[in-house]
Design brief:
The protein is of the alpha/beta class and 319 residues long. It contains nine helices and 15 strands. Strands 3, 4, 5, 6, 7, 14 and 15 form a seven-stranded mixed sheet that branches. It has a six-stranded parallel sheet with strand order 10-9-8-11-12-13, sandwiched between helices. The chain has a two-stranded antiparallel sheet with strand order 1-2. Helix 2 crosses helix 3. It is globular, with a radius of gyration of 20 Å. The termini are close together.
């Protein structure tokens, strides 16, 4: 079959031939129609993700849309290594497939499920309840834009969107953001902006897609000084690290307030929980579609487009 194949880490996949998968007991074959180029796909394929496989060659791709042998159209994930979803055919466990509503097209589903699930699952992990306030750190990326919509859809009292793209920040005001913070300002200005929003209405939950300097700025802004403050519980959920893999965290930041830091991703959330969240997200999308910008391209163009900048648009490949 034709597939995108990783032969060496840190080198874009090549469109070439690869042995077709064979279904074993409990598995199903899926004829792939669309698969999204998510951030996690790139990091898994270049060996930098903590869940990367050392097995080479391999086909990248963590999820996709396709048809089972009986014609059922499904969203699926967790293909068996080395068979990812960037191929004409993939293989996965039968219980890792779920029917796709006819109202949603292949490209949209392939684009939105992974980034949309990231916020849906993260809010569940934070034990978010309707009426709480949410800050999205890294809101102008695809996942962040969906996170704003998801938080509002789930009943957030107030949603603050922080990101670098000024055009997208303005658009997010129409998609549920009650306030925006530009991360393109200098460090002191970013801290001041976060502190201003914190004073207006303290955040109950933070979804962090960037880590690095923006996370440090936020933590500095909410760190309380002096005595006599009542601890305000803040659940800080770490989801992505596009701004840097590490931060400097002052001990006083943890001691001076009610900050709770947790992660959401492979390992911290079970696959059963992830797929339960995916099912809920699909049902919500069927009732009222989420807004997401997509671009579709033939899988044969994988090498040329692999390192293209996201710019708030999710690239989807079709075999």
């Amino acid at each position: 079959m034709n597939a995108a194949v990783v032969h060496a880490f840190h080198v874009p996949p090549r469109y070439t031939s690869f042995a077709e998968p064979v279904a074993t007991e409990g598995d199903v074959l899926v004829k792939v129609s669309a698969a999204g180029l998510h951030r996690v796909v790139k990091s898994l394929a270049d060996g930098t993700h903590y869940a990367s496989s050392e097995m080479l060659p391999l086909i990248p791709g963590v999820d996709g849309v396709g048809r089972l042998e009986d014609g059922t159209r499904v969203y699926f994930g967790m293909s068996r290594t080395p068979f990812g979803t960037f191929a004409e055919c993939s293989v996965t466990a039968r219980d890792m497939c779920m029917p796709v509503p006819e109202t949603l097209d292949d490209v949209t589903v392939a684009a939105m499920m992974n980034p949309g699930m990231s916020s849906w699952a993260a809010l569940l992990r934070a034990q978010f309840v309707a009426g709480e306030s949410v800050l999205i750190l890294g809101a102008t990326g695809v996942a962040g834009q969906l996170a704003v919509q998801v938080a509002k859809r789930l009943g957030a009292r107030r949603v603050v969107a922080a990101g670098r793209n000024p055009q997208v920040l303005e658009e997010l005001k129409q998609r549920g953001a009650d306030a925006v913070v530009s991360l393109s300002q200098g460090r002191e200005a970013v801290v001041s902006s976060f502190r201003g929003e914190w004073v207006k209405d303290r955040f109950d939950v933070v979804l962090d897609y960037v880590w690095g300097d923006p996370a440090e700025s936020l933590l500095e802004a909410i760190s309380q000084k002096g005595r006599g403050y009542a601890a305000s519980r803040i659940r800080f959920v770490q989801v992505g690290a596009s701004a840097g893999p590490t931060i400097a965290l002052a001990a006083a930041t943890l001691r001076s307030g009610g900050l709770e830091m947790i992660g959401s991703g492979f390992g911290s959330v079970s696959m059963e929980q992830i797929f339960a969240a995916i099912a809920e997200f699909l049902r919500e999308a069927e009732k009222e579609p989420f807004q997401i910008k997509t671009t579709a391209a033939p899988l044969s163009e994988i090498k040329a487009l692999w390192n293209s900048a996201e710019q708030g648009v999710r690239l989807v490949f079709q075999p």
